[in-house]
Design a protein that fits this description.
Strand content: 5-15%
Distance between the termini: 55 Å
Helix content: 40-55%
Order of helices and strands: EHEHEHEHEHEEHEHEHH
Strand order of the largest sheet: 3-2-1-4-5-6-9
Number of strands: 9
Number of helices: 9
Largest sheet: 7 strands, parallel
Radius of gyration: 19 Å
C-alpha cells in the first residue's frame, strides 16, 4: 500500500504534537513544522523509533509569510506530496487592543490567518488535482463569539471557522475534505503564553488534555465532519453563543476574560466546594 504523508504545523507541543503522534501511529509519514528545531528533532527520533515511518523536520517561523512558499517548494523538489494537512499553529495575546503592540498583533494575524490560508491554497490545489486529501484547521470555541480583551485572537478563530466551512463546500466534489476543529480549554501551555492564565475563564478550571482533543479531531477529520467541537458543554456554549443576544454574549466573554481579583472565589480542580 502507498504510504501517505501528513504535514502538521505547530508540531513542537500541545495539540500539534499529539496530532503528529496519532498520525505516526496510523502509519503516515510526517512533515513536522515549528520554530523549535531541537524539539522537532527529538520528536522525529521518537516517532521513527516507535513506528515504521519517516519524519521530515522543517524549522520555520510561520509569522513570516514567505516560509509557507519555501516549505511548499522544498517538498515539491523532494517529490513529497501532502495527503493530510493539519494547520495547528496559532498564538494568542491577552490585553486591550489599543494597548497591544502592533508587531504582536501582526504576528498573530500572520500565523493564525494568513499562513493557514496560504497552506490551504497551495496544498489544497494539489489535493484537488489528485481528487483526494484531508485538511484540518484548528480553530477554537472562541470562533463562535467576539472576545473583548482578546479581540484579534477571537476574530482570527472566527475567520478560521468561516473559511473552513466555505472551502469545505467548494472542495465537495473534488474528494478533498475540510474540518474545523474548535476545542475549548485545553492543557497546552497556550494560556501561559497568551497571558490568560489568571483570567476567570482559565484560573482553576479543568482543561481537556491535548491528546484527547487531537484524537477527537483526527476521528472527526476521518469521518469527514466539517465542524468538530470536543465536549458537550463546548457544543452547548457554541450553540448558545449563536442564538443569544450578541450584546449579552460579548459582555459575558469580557467578564470571563478579566483577571480574577484576590477576593474572587475560584476553586481549583483539587478544591472542595
Amino acid at each position: 500500500m502507498e504510504r501517505l504523508t501528513a504535514l502538521v504545523t505547530g508540531a513542537s507541543g500541545g495539540i500539534g504534537y499529539e496530532f503528529a503522534r496519532i498520525l505516526a501511529k496510523e502509519n503516515y509519514n510526517l512533515v513536522v513544522v515549528a520554530r523549535n528545531e531541537n524539539i522537532l528533532k527529538d520528536l522525529k527520533k521518537t516517532l521513527e523509533a516507535e513506528s515504521d515511518i519517516t519524519v521530515k523536520v522543517v524549522a520555520k517561523d510561520l509569522s513570516n509569510i514567505a516560509s509557507v512558499c519555501e516549505i511548499y517548494n522544498e517538498l515539491k523538489k523532494e517529490n513529497i506530496a501532502i495527503d493530510v494537512l493539519v494547520n495547528n499553529a496559532g498564538i494568542g495575546k491577552f490585553g486591550l487592543f489599543s494597548e497591544t503592540d502592533w508587531h504582536k498583533t501582526e504576528e498573530m494575524i500572520n500565523i493564525n490567518i494568513t499562513t493557514l490560508t496560504y497552506f490551504c491554497s497551495l496544498f489544497g490545489k494539489d489535493m484537488a488535482a489528485r481528487n483526494r486529501g484531508r485538511i484540518l484547521n484548528v480553530a477554537s470555541t472562541a470562533a463562535f463569539q467576539p472576545g473583548p480583551l482578546m479581540a484579534v485572537y477571537y476574530a482570527s478563530k472566527a475567520y478560521v471557522l468561516s473559511f473552513s466551512e466555505a472551502i469545505a463546500n467548494e472542495f465537495k466534489e473534488t474528494g478533498v475534505t475540510v474540518t474545523a476543529l474548535c476545542p475549548g480549554l485545553t492543557d497546552t501551555g497556550f494560556h501561559e503564553r497568551a497571558g490568560t492564565q489568571k483570567s476567570k475563564l482559565v484560573a482553576g478550571k479543568k482543561m481537556n488534555s491535548a491528546r484527547d482533543v487531537a484524537l477527537y479531531g483526527y476521528r472527526a477529520m476521518m469521518k469527514q465532519k466539517t465542524v468538530a467541537v470536543p465536549g458537550w458543554k463546548n457544543r452547548l456554549l457554541a450553540l448558545v453563543s449563536r442564538f443569544a443576544p450578541k450584546a449579552a454574549v460579548i459582555a459575558a466573554v469580557r467578564k470571563m476574560l478579566e483577571e480574577r481579583r484576590d477576593d474572587d472565589k475560584v476553586l481549583s480542580a483539587h478544591s472542595k466546594p
